[in-house]
Amino acid sequence: MMILLGIEITFIFESNSLKDKRRIIQSLMTKISRQYGVSIAETADHDILNQATLGLGIVSNSHVHAEKMLQQAVAYCEDHYPIEIIAISWYE
Fold this sequence. Notes:
Blueprint: E1 3-13, H1 18-36, E2 39-44, E3 51-60, H2 63-80, E4 83-91
Helix pairs in contact: 1-2
């Protein structure tokens, strides 16, 4: 069985310019993708200075494993980056 699971997170953080925002977002996306094996992209709020929305997706043969990887990715973001998550949406 193939499980497709996705999550969209919106968060706020401090940045001084759009260039600074892109640097932070790119760093976060690269680390999350490598460490947790998820696909990740900035899906909205491209031109808003202190807010970002990221979509994360994973394909697995286990719903429990897929959910665990996405939850760990979100926890990593909160633990290693100065962000405040303001919305989370799950997609199955």
